[in-house]
Amino acid sequence: MNCPMCRVDNPVNSKFRLECGASFASPCPKCGIELPPAAKFRNGCGHALRPTSPQPLAPSLGSPSPLNYTPKHLADKILTARAALEGERKQVTVLFADVKGSMELAEQVDPEEWHRILDRFFQILTDGVHRFEGTVNQYTGDGIMALFGAPIAHEDHAQRACYAALRLGEELQRYGQELKRQRGLNFSVRIGLNSGEVVVGRIGDDLRMDYTAQGHTVGLAARMEQLAEVGRVYLTEHTGRLVEGLFRLGDLGLFTVKGVHDPLRVYELQGVGPLRTRLEVAARRGLSRFVGRREQLEQLKQAWEAAHAGHGQIVAVMGEAGIGKSRLFHEFKVPLQAQCPVLETFSVSHGKAYAYLPVIDLLRTYFHIALEDDERARREKVTGKVLALDRTLEDTLPYVFALLGIQDPTSALPQMDAQVRRRRTLEAIKRILVRETLDQPVTLICEDLHWFDGESQALLDLLVESVATARLLLLVNYRPEYHHGWGSKTYYTQLRLDPLGKAEAGELLAALLGPGAAAGLDRLQGLILDKTEGNPFFIEEVVQTLAEEGVLRGDRGSYRVEKVPAELHIPVTVGVRDAAAGLRPRDRRANRGRDHGNAWWS
Question: CA-CA distances (angstroms) from residue 420 to 36, 74, 400, 424, 456?
Fold first, then answer.
């Protein structure tokens, strides 16, 4: 089996993908038990996953109501918030997908058979879009138009769209091969992506809605789909800027696109990229000066000293998006890596759809599993490390193998009760981590707990109970909306990150602009500091945008100003949600729902 996101071959019956660690199964939203893709009922609670007689999706029977194909949890979110959504501007990524030569294909089969082919095709499309909380805005006869970031705002709409496109490409390639074998049809699909601004129109009770495109946002996505070769995904430079480094992009050069004045750079989406987080993207181009947070950094060092002495500690860093949680951990861990193992894991905003995703990422780090490792190499690394650590841990191997997609014909796990298997899996991982702390102190960093899936959260809760007696420093960060039950632990400390003070924000801005730009530019600095209100990520993104727009010339740290704008607008990589920090209330109404960058400062 091929992974739809990273295009790496996986052994037949794999539970998890070898490169990206995502699960081939989907967790039941009610009982949490993983289910194979073809499951119709939940084996933990008995509820139906989909209607036993699903509504046809093919538009040949008329335009279906969005309520027929939108998952209930998404529909509820849209209907609950529609009064606030209507008329708003949103940063989105638009996806178009259609069948190449559909009219010719339709002539080769019976009309009813063609309808069944399209019905399956549309089911694959809608399932793939909804998996990443996109919405199908309309059917186009032989394809769909889908939106990521509207009507439900997502800060990583471009990433979600790219993951969905990769998944759809793999699923549709399999479907095309099936139709080729069974009916001799050359069924192939093209996909196009573009990111930009739209205005949300009226939302009906049936979820029907209209969007007014700004800057040809929708039209450019359609053009990308028309340009794409069969079986390929093309995207514009607008989307490319938002996902650079996080996905592998093939530069196809400049294209003259109808309706666009200047040539447009086009990319092919080829797979998941080498970088995992926005912090890594930022580090590649050079991190800015670290300012402020000295008190918090000192508290982390004190917690480490206590853990090193055998009194395990948990330190949680809470703060709004972009406030500097990840950067604080980065500054702490870099000098620490020479003293003890530092294990890291994180989640992504769509991570709740993948059981154990942060856990798998943690295991790959712990066992030093590389992308190029074949199954034999991965088995040897896991077995060797576990047995060298403690031979009494040999019974944990089947559970680790299962999570990492390593085949184990002798394993009894497939026949095991799901709840028993889950409990033993969590216990096995905890035992390995705690045993490691007997030989040396360990620092474990878990980022973005607000996006952890239920299984990964359960492991964290289990591990927390053993921290006090282990030489373990557990560092976690999350946004204010996340809640846990560890507050009463005597070995738990919470640090809240607030926006930078005026002096600290000014220091960061001066470092970004440089002494040449700062001279006589009080007005520009004042505009930036007023707009960003001490959010370090916002400060960096505003300066970067001013450079891209020609307001600033030169390189970071040595800019010169060409002109001082009358006012500053919010970059698309920042945007704002009601809960996000960094903009005054007067700005929130105008920018509510726009993309909020999940960046290195997050």
Answer: 18, 31, 15, 6, 16
Phi, psi of 398 (to 5 degrees): -60, -35
The structure tokens listed for 99 are 């069948």
| Residue 317, beta-bridge partner list | 477, 495
Residue 514 has a pLDDT of 82
Q: Phi/psi zone of residue 597: left (φ > 0), alpha (ψ -120 to 50 degrees), beta?
A: beta
H, E, C per residue of 275-307: CCCHHHHHHHHCCCCCCCCHHHHHHHHHHHHHH
The number of angstroms, rounded, from the C-alpha of 294 to the middle of its chain's C-alpha atoms is: 30
Tell me the two tokens of residue 192.
Answer: 């196009």
Asked if 145 and 96 touch (Cβ cutoff 8 Å), the reply is yes
Q: Label the pairing between strands 264-272 and 233-236.
A: antiparallel
Quickly count: other Cβ atoms within 10 Å of residue 263's Cβ: 11
Q: Is the dihedral of CA 284, 442, 461, 17 positive or negative?
A: positive
Q: Residue 48 carries which DSSP code?
A: B
Q: What is the rounded distance in angstroms from the CA atom of residue 540 to the CA atom of residue 592? A: 20
Q: Which CATH architecture has domain 54-274?
A: 2-Layer Sandwich (3.30)
Strands 492-496 and 189-203: unpaired
Rounded CA-CA distance 583/352 in Å is: 28
Residue position matching structure tokens 């890596």: 337
Which residues have a Cβ under 8 Å from the Cβ of 9 and sit 6 or more positions away? 1, 2, 18
Strand positions, DSSP E, 336-447: 342-346, 442-447
Specify the 3-state DSSP secondary structure of 86: coil
Give the sign of the dihedral formed by CA 82, CA 83, CA 87, CA 92: negative
531, 523 in Cβ contact below 8 A?
Answer: no
Residue that the structure tokens 């990150």 belong to? 497
Q: What is the phi/psi pair of residue 333, to 5°?
A: -80, -30
pLDDT digits (tens, 9 = 90+) for 328-369: 999 999 999 888 899 999 888 777 777 898 999 999 999 999
Q: What is the DSSP letter of 329?
A: H
Query: How many Å separate Cα 410 from the centre of its chain?
Result: 35
Contacts of 347 (CB under 8 A, 6+ apart): 357, 358, 447, 448, 449, 451, 452, 453, 456
Closest CA to 152 of 240, 241, 76, 63: 76
With residue 483 as reference, give the H or E element that holds it: none
Model pTM score: 0.74
List all residues 6 or more positions away from 221 whose beta carbon is below 8 Å from its beta carbon.
94, 95, 96, 145, 192, 193, 194, 236
Contacts of residues 522-531 at CB distance under 8 Å and 24 or more positions apart, as own/partner, are 523/564, 524/561, 524/564, 524/565, 527/564, 527/565, 527/567, 527/568, 528/568, 529/502, 529/505, 531/568, 531/570, 531/583, 531/587
DSSP 562: S
HSE-CB at 378 with a 13 A cutoff on CA atoms is 23
Question: What CATH topology corresponds to 293-496?
Answer: Rossmann fold (3.40.50)
Query: How far is residue 492's CA from residue 478's CA, in Å, rounded to a whole number?
Result: 15
Q: What is the pLDDT of residues 213-267, one digit of tens each?
A: 455 788 899 999 999 999 999 999 999 999 998 999 999 999 998 878 889 999 9
Count the Cβ atoms, other than its own, within 10 Å of residue 191.
29
